Amino acid sequence: xxxxxxxxxxxxxxxxxxxxxxxxxxxxxxxxxxxxxxxxxxxxxxxxxxxxxxxxxxxxxxxxxxxxxxxxxxxxxxxxxxxxxxxxxxxxxxxxxxxxxxxxxxxxxxxxxxxxxxxxxxxxxxxxxxxxxxxxxxxxxxxxxxxxxxxxxxxxxxxxxxxxxxxxxxxxxxxxxxxxxxxxxxxxxxxxxxxxxxxxxxxxxxxxxxxxxxxxxxxxxxx
Length: 223
Description:
Keywords: Membrane, Transmembrane, Transmembrane helix. The chain contains four helices and ten strands; from the N terminus they run αβββββαββββαβα. The chain is α+β, with helices and mostly antiparallel strands. It has two domains: about 5-180, Mog1/PsbP, alpha/beta/alpha sandwich (Protein Transport Mog1p, Chain A, 3-Layer(aba) Sandwich), CATH 3.40.1000.10; about 190-223.
């Protein structure tokens, strides 16, 4: 039996995950004891919003923590208006983008420890590393979750001494992630654009045919 699957199933059944979070078109059950924190400090932030495309629109969507002060673990969820497949070819690109994001945009150095591609209903790429913040060593997990058109990035940070106990709950939480259909503005997937174009073309043809029939009927009545 797959140990990661077994651990995740046990966490789901035992209630070790928190209440469902629905926000900006996605659904996620955070680890137990994680709760939304005061939003004001994060307004307009792109912290954790890692993207392979520097021009992509991105924003922080949710900030959670399991306590207060330096010993607390935090979870940031960002939405990036760009497709991400979490394919083997994008694995290394995402890892590189994570390092650049922390260095250039956050001003801290993330020392990578491992990069993994995780399969499942929503495949993802996980980058695990450590950084030093205010004299404290923290473990950081950055996960890019695959989706077409727009995707999410989840960043979890915790004191290194707490990571081993938190890791199973964090990964079980990531397994619950789903990106739902949304009417919010954003990048429209190419296959959706194709369907819309086909529907529009069909509507135009039907309208033109109706107009021709109407004109023909008018000509007959005038005769």
